[in-house]
Design brief:
The structure is a homodimer. Chain A is of the alpha+beta class. The first copy, chain A, contains five helices and six strands, in the order ααααββββββα. The first copy, chain A, has a three-stranded mixed β-sheet. A two-stranded antiparallel ribbon of chain A has the order 1-2. The structure holds a DNA duplex.
DNA sequence: CTGTATGCAAAGGTTTTGCATCGGG
DNA sequence: CCCGATGCAAAACCTTTGCATACAG
């Protein structure tokens, strides 16, 4: 996988060390394809890679966020999920199955005249039903 | 304040009791004008109204959310803030002072063709600098 | 009166921290 | 070699829960 090399290089460039633990976390994020929480990453790696601790997972996630490889999602309450940034997209939280799925949006957002604030970034969180759950629903009603 | 009566009526209609604690929380939310967390509400009421507990605050917030008087905000990590819903608006988190300020947006959001999901609701969170902090910055540089 | 709401304290879940040790560059 | 990274366990933080009591309707 090429993305991995890019991340490694960026880590080096920013003065961060590349440790086996960090490599495992990066692999997991790239292979997994969804939006794991810190705990899911920890458990996912632990099985085939037991020498990882929670503090290392959190430390690495913070580092990966700082170099711009991942973004954190506050789409659910009281738990942060992490999103490997691969292409521009937003997210939908499925109220049926609880998964977070990628969604591509046409978003045209502009401040109304009186809002004199400076916007550096923004996040759009959708809530609804994902494709899989919609399919299951259709099958039921047939 | 008239809004208060409306909330009281809605509580009654939905079969919830109106207790002094709940009244105090509603007052605080209406008078305060910003977006307090559960803890801020608890502390804000406690001073002039000592007979309130954390569980009551959380219980009441859940009730107020259910009747549609407040909405929860996940704009910051690991802490939920509550927003008395008075008029349609979105929110900006000020990365300077940490406050959450109301912002009115023209938001035109549409799913791209391939996204076959069902959207029930969405949230837009802006991150940047609020008006007050922009002003302070300007004064400094002069 | 009746059942919901409250207060308290304890538990639950997630994230952070302190510190000694390890190991990547 | 050195300094940052790790692991462990404990702490911090926010929220929920269980249960006996209080009180709104």
């Amino acid at each position: 996988m090429d993305k991995k090399k890019i991340v490694f290089r960026r880590l080096k460039d920013e003065g961060f060390k590349i440790t086996p633990q960090r490599a495992a976390i990066i692999d997991f994020l790239l292979d997994n394809g969804n939006h794991p929480s810190a705990e899911e990453i920890y458990k996912g790696i632990k099985t085939e890679y037991p020498m990882v601790s929670f503090s290392t997972v959190y430390n690495t996630l913070r580092v990966l966020e700082r170099i711009g490889f991942i973004k954190s999602l506050n789409i659910t309450e009281n738990r942060v999920n992490f999103d490997p940034e691969t292409y521009p997209h937003h997210h939908l939280y499925c109220e049926r199955c609880g998964r977070i799925v990628d969604v591509q949006l046409d978003a045209d957002i502009s401040l109304l005249k009186n809002n004199t604030v400076k916007v550096n970034s923004y996040r759009i969180y959708l809530y609804g039903i994902c494709l899989d759950c919609l399919r299951k629903e259709r099958e039921k009603t047939v």
